[in-house]
Write a structure and sequence with these properties.
The chain has 14 helices and 23 strands. By secondary structure, the chain is an alpha/beta fold. The structure holds NADP nicotinamide-adenine-dinucleotide phosphate. The site of NADP nicotinamide-adenine-dinucleotide phosphate has 25 residues, from helix 5.
Length: 493
C-alpha cells in the first residue's frame, strides 16, 4: 500500500480525463480548478442549455441571495460590482456567466446532455447520456447541487385548480400577476422573497402558512458608486470585505447552529425584537411567532416580509389547507380562498444527491443499494465502493452554516489532491468502508448538540430524521478539507 501512495504522490504525469456533472456554481469551479491543476481533458455535462444551476432555474420575483454578495463569490474572483449587500438572482447568474467566460469554461461544457447512467468498469467511469451518447473517464465529479429537485405538495385536488399553478423554481413568466388574486403556499426563504416583490402588483396575495418562521433583519443597502469604484481600485479592500462577511458568518451564525448557546440567544433575541418592532397587530404577531428555536429551520433574512404581509391586500392564512379546488384553496375552517394564480413555494428534495442518475460502482453495487438506509459519504466527498467518484456539496456538507461557495472550494481542493493520485501511480482511489462508518457515526453523535434537532420540521432532516448537515465548526471543516488522510483510503495501483 505504501508503495502505491509513494508512487502516486511522486508524479502527476499520467493524463486523466475528468467528467464534471452539472454546470452550476460547483461545476464551473471544478472546470476552472482542474485546468489550473494542469488537467485539460475535462468535459462538463449539463442537462440544460445554459449554465448557472440554481441561479438559472430560479427566476421568481424577488429572487436574491441572503448570503452577503461579497462573500457569495469565488474567493479567487471577487466582484467589486455587486449593487447591494444581498444581490438579486439575475446579478448572481450574470456573475457566474461572466466568470465562466473569463476562464473559458464554456468550451468544456456539453449543454443539453443529461447523464442518466454512470458505471464503474475496468477502472473507468462509463457515462451514458439520455440521447445515447457515451463517454469513458478516469474520474467523475458530481456537481449536481442540493436544492435542485422541486418538492410538490401532496394536497388533494392540486391538479384541479383552474388558474395558473407552478412551483417557485419553475416560475411561469407567461402568467400575468397584475391585478390578480395570488396564493402562495409555504413560508420558507423563497415565499418570504416572493410576497414583498409582488404585493404591490397584485389585487390580493394570500400566504398559506403551515409553520411560522423566525426572520432576522440584516438591512440591504446598495453600494454607492464611490464604494464600488473603491472596491474596483483596491483588490485589498475587496478582500477585506470578503473576509469581514466570512468572519461574521463563521463567528456568529456558524457557531450558534452547532451549539454556541450565547450566540444562539443573541440571534433569537434579534429575531424576537424584529418581530416585536415590525408587526403592529397582536393577533398577526401571534400567528407569526414560531414555537421552536431560531435557526432550527433555515433562518430567514428579510427586511421586506413583515412590512409586506401587513399591507391591506396581503393576507396570512393559518388554517390548514384541506384541498385545492377549481376556484382556489379550501381551508379547514371551510373557507374557499378564491385565486387566479397559485405559487407552490414548497421547497426542494434536498436528499436526492446525484439522482436520478443511475450510478453503479464496484461489483455492480448501485448507489441506491449503498444508500438504502441513509446517504452516507466519506467527509461528504467520496464513497466506499465507488472509486474515483467525488461529490461537491454532498451529504453532510455545512450548507446551513455559511456560503456554499466556500464549502465547494474547500471540498474541491481536497478532491483535487485525490485526483492527483490518479495522475501518479494510482488507478483507483476510494475511501475505506470502516473510515466512512466512523465518520458517519461521529456525525450522528455530534448532531445532538445542534439546533437542527431541537424540535422542528425542515428540509435539512432526512427520512430518518437526521440533519444532512455538518455538526461541527467551520474551523474543523476547513481543517478536515486540508488534505486527505490516505490511511483512510483504498488505493489501487
Ligand atoms: P423550504 O424552506 O423548504 O420551505 C417550504 C415551505 O413550504 C415551508 O414553509 C413548508 O411548511 C411549506 N410546505 C411544504 N409542503 C407543504 C404542504 N403540503 N402544505 C403546506 N405547506 C407546505 O423551501 P424554500 O423556501 O424554497 O427554501 C429552501 C431553501 O432554499 C432555503 O432553506 C435556502 O437554503 C434556499 N434558499 C435560499 C435563498 C437565499 O436567499 N439564499 C432563497 C430561497 C431559497 P413547513 O415549514 O410547515 O414544512
Amino acid at each position: 500500500m505504501q508503495g502505491v501512495e509513494e508512487r502516486a504522490k511522486e508524479s502527476v504525469g499520467r493524463p486523466v480525463r475528468v467528467a464534471v456533472i452539472g454546470a452550476g456554481m460547483s461545476g464551473i469551479l471544478s472546470a476552472i480548478k482542474l485546468r489550473e491543476r494542469g488537467i485539460e481533458d475535462i468535459v462538463v455535462y449539463e442537462k440544460a442549455s445554459s449554465l448557472g444551476g440554481t441561479w438559472r432555474d430560479n427566476t421568481y420575483p424577488g429572487l436574491s441571495c441572503d448570503v452577503p454578495s461579497h462573500v457569495y463569490a469565488y474567493s479567487f474572483e471577487l466582484n467589486p460590482d455587486w449593487s447591494r449587500r444581498f444581490s438579486s438572482g439575475s446579478e448572481i447568474r450574470a456573475y457566474f456567466e461572466r466568470v465562466a467566460r473569463k476562464y473559458d469554461v464554456e468550451r468544456h461544457i456539453r449543454f443539453d446532455t443529461e447523464i442518466i447512467r454512470a458505471v464503474y468498469r475496468g477502472g473507468r467511469w462509463h457515462l451514458t447520456a439520455r440521447d445515447g451518447r457515451d463517454d469513458a473517464v478516469d474520474a467523475v465529479i458530481f456537481a449536481t447541487g442540493v436544492l435542485h429537485h422541486p418538492a410538490y405538495p401532496d394536497i388533494e385536488g392540486l391538479q384541479s385548480f383552474a388558474g395558473d399553478c407552478f412551483h417557485s423554481a419553475r416560475w411561469n413568466h407567461e402568467a400575468p400577476l397584475e391585478g390578480r388574486r395570488v396564493g402562495i403556499i409555504g413560508t420558507g426563504s423563497t415565499a418570504v422573497q416572493i410576497l414583498p416583490a409582488i404585493v404591490d402588483q397584485v389585487a390580493k396575495v394570500s400566504l398559506f402558512q403551515r409553520t411560522p418562521q423566525w426572520i432576522l433583519s440584516m438591512g440591504n443597502p446598495s453600494y454607492a458608486p464611490e464604494e464600488i469604484a473603491a472596491f474596483r481600485a483596491s483588490p485589498e479592500r475587496l478582500r477585506q470585505s470578503y473576509d469581514h462577511w466570512a468572519d461574521r458568518f463563521i463567528n456568529t451564525f456558524a457557531r450558534a447552529v452547532v451549539g454556541d448557546e450565547h450566540e444562539m440567544r443573541r440571534i433569537e433575541a434579534a429575531c424576537r425584537q424584529n418581530l416585536e418592532e415590525s408587526v403592529r397587530d397582536p393577533e398577526l404577531k401571534r400567528k407569526l411567532t414560531p414555537n421552536y428555536k431560531a435557526a432550527c429551520k433555515r433562518l430567514i433574512m428579510s427586511d421586506t416580509f413583515y412590512p409586506a404581509i401587513q399591507k391591506p391586500n396581503a393576507e396570512l392564512v393559518t388554517d390548514a389547507i384541506t384541498r385545492i379546488e377549481r376556484g382556489g384553496v379550501r381551508t379547514a375552517d371551510g373557507a374557499l380562498h378564491e385565486l387566479d394564480v397559485l405559487v407552490l413555494a414548497t421547497g426542494f428534495d434536498g436528499h436526492a444527491f446525484m439522482r436520478p442518475i443511475e450510478i453503479v460502482g464496484e461489483g455492480g453495487r448501485t448507489l441506491d443499494q449503498a444508500w438504502a438506509n441513509a446517504n452516507e459519504a466519506y467527509r461528504s466527498v467520496a464513497l466506499p465502493g465507488f472509486p474515483n467518484l467525488f461529490t461537491l456539496v454532498g451529504p453532510n456538507s455545512p450548507i446551513g452554516n455559511f456560503s456554499v461557495i466556500m464549502i465547494s472550494e474547500l471540498q474541491l481542493g481536497y478532491v483535487l489532491q485525490l485526483i492527483d493520485l490518479l495522475r501518479g501511480g494510482c488507478r483507483a482511489v476510494a475511501p475505506r468502508q470502516d473510515a466512512t462508518d466512523r465518520f458517519n457515526r461521529a456525525i450522528r453523535d455530534a448532531m445532538g448538540g445542534t439546533v437542527w434537532v431541537s424540535g422542528c420540521r425542515s428540509w435539512y432532516l432526512d427520512r430518518n430524521g437526521n440533519p444532512a448537515l455538518w455538526p461541527w465548526s467551520f474551523e474543523r471543516f476547513r481543517q478536515e478539507m486540508q488534505a486527505p488522510d490516505l490511511s483512510e483510503f483504498e488505493l489501487v495501483a
